[in-house]
Amino acid sequence: MKIRLIALTLLSALALSACGSSKQRAVVVDRTEAAKPSSPVSSVMPKKANPAASDWRPNVHVVKKGDTMYSIAFNYGLDYRELAELNGIENPSKINIGQEIRLFPEGKGALAKAGEESPAGGEPVTKPVAAEILVKTSPKAIKLPYSEQALAQLEAMPDWSKSAQVAPVSVAKPAVEAKPETPPVVAVPAATLPKSEAAPVAEDSGSGDELVWLAPTSGKVIGEYSESANRKGVDIAGKAGQPVYASAAGKVVYSGSGLRGYGKLIIIKHNKTYISAYAHNDKILVKERQQVAKGDKIAEMGNSDSEQVKLHFEIRKFGKPIDPSKLLPPIKP
């Protein structure tokens, strides 16, 4: 009843105003605002932690004056033989200034771009999520010229303010790839299983943080690590021929005198993170690509390319020198 009185009052007011004009005006009844389409629903995946966040190494090194394949590998904590093979270099002693040396296989470098799921950029990933979007299909605004017939038509229309038809629109879920079924496990009698052979020492076994280090030799520490003074390791004085030991298990990736200032040098790669270096030896007892265990005797102390008998010892993380005293046990005099 109230709606009818309001409609009649509105129509009367419009009729009076129309008398003062030569033009005929229409009655406009807008019961609700036009429905706005709902925005798609999205799910923002959280950033994934980058496992190589502390690895500063680029994917490519540009050769500078004074560089050698040995020094490049040493400075990035890599094996110079593998580096040469990766770049198709037959003679590691022949590289040119300006030459680009790829340090890692494609997609495996620390600064390589991550796939869409992860980031090494850490950008959030937006994925569609199944949802129902409600879209209002009625009522709509109605415009009719004033007349008794129009008034009767308006009164006959249902009251949309009480009930609105809502048509749900469903968003299809993304297809999920079916996982292959796991084949059944068949039991095999123990007597038929072959005996397992002892596995060689793995170069990349364990993470670098799990290594337990051993002092490479004994003696007086005559030079300590100093980043500001560009001292990349510790110097331990001793006697000529004194044993030098591997501080941790790994693979010998360099053995020789090709790096200036180090004399007869041994470099051991322990895993993907750490390498250790033993310089100024008198005699080298291991060969390149040889696997060594922690505590193995690898050299005898000397004074090659040095003014006194000593061992210069370094630990490098991703090729960057770090303070050995933070990892080694106390060195006995």
UniProtKB/TrEMBL annotation:
For this protein, the record's PROSITE patterns field holds: LYSM, PROKAR_LIPOPROTEIN
Domain LysM residues, every copy: 59-103
Q: GO MF terms on file?
A: metalloendopeptidase activity
Alphabetically ordered keywords of this record: Hydrolase, Signal
Task: Check the record and name the Pfam families matching this protein.
Answer: LysM (PF01476), Peptidase_M23 (PF01551)
Specify the superkingdom. Bacteria
Q: Which InterPro entries match?
A: Cell_wall_metabolism_enzyme, Dup_hybrid_motif, LysM, LysM_dom_sf, M23ase_b-sheet_dom
Q: Which CDD domains match?
A: LysM, M23_peptidase
Signal sequence: where?
A: 1-20
Where is it found, in Gene Ontology cellular component terms? cell division site; cell outer membrane
Gene3D superfamilies recorded for this chain?
A: Glucose Permease (Domain IIA), LysM domain
Give the similarity note.
Belongs to the E.coli NlpD/Haemophilus LppB family.
Q: What is this protein called?
A: Murein hydrolase activator NlpD
